[in-house]
# Entry
Amino acid sequence: MIGLLRGRIVSRQPPFLLLDVNGVGYEVEAPMSTFYDLPAGDGPVTLYTHLMVRDDAHTLFGFVRERDRALFRMLLKVSGVGGKMALAILSGMTADEFSLSVQAGDVAALTRLPGVGKKTAERLIVEMRDRLEKLEVAAAQAGAPVTARAAGGADADAVDALVALGYKPAEASRMVRAVFAPGMETEALIKAALQGVSK
# Structure
């Protein structure tokens, strides 16, 4: 199994990347989230990879973040989700946005993704909810920031603060989601989340 590649980008034509690793060219399929995070030009890059072996093809998928690869692998376990659909999901929203949509049961947000119909969205919500909580716990134990939304927002800071106070990452994320409103400051979010627990 090829788990990681470190090399130079030869060409990029989404969803394909050609990576030169010591003179060997690896063709890798990647979600748009990975393309957004790639360095400019042909600089060195490290990709976490997943090798999918089928009778008719060996396909290598690549991700800048290990968490994205972990989510990709979880998506493949969902009935009816293959490599192409998993890539489309990761291209259409970040791992944090997907997690929020699943935890909130937001079928509408998931059906906006290409190739995801209502039944598939409902299946994703049912089958991924518990797996995502395990992913968030694993990320927290590995020292990775667990955020409710994109890193750096007030909601992300509030989740981190609640985790520091002893709440489990998944629980902290749910607490913040329950009270979050655009424009709220970190302190107000933490206060509202803690007041919600005491009610």
Q: What stands out?
A: The domain at 4-63 is CATH 2.40.50.140 (OB fold (Dihydrolipoamide Acetyltransferase, E2P)). The beta strands are 4-13, 16-21, 24-29, 44-53, 58-63. The two ends are 50 Å apart (CA to CA). The chain has nine helices and five strands.
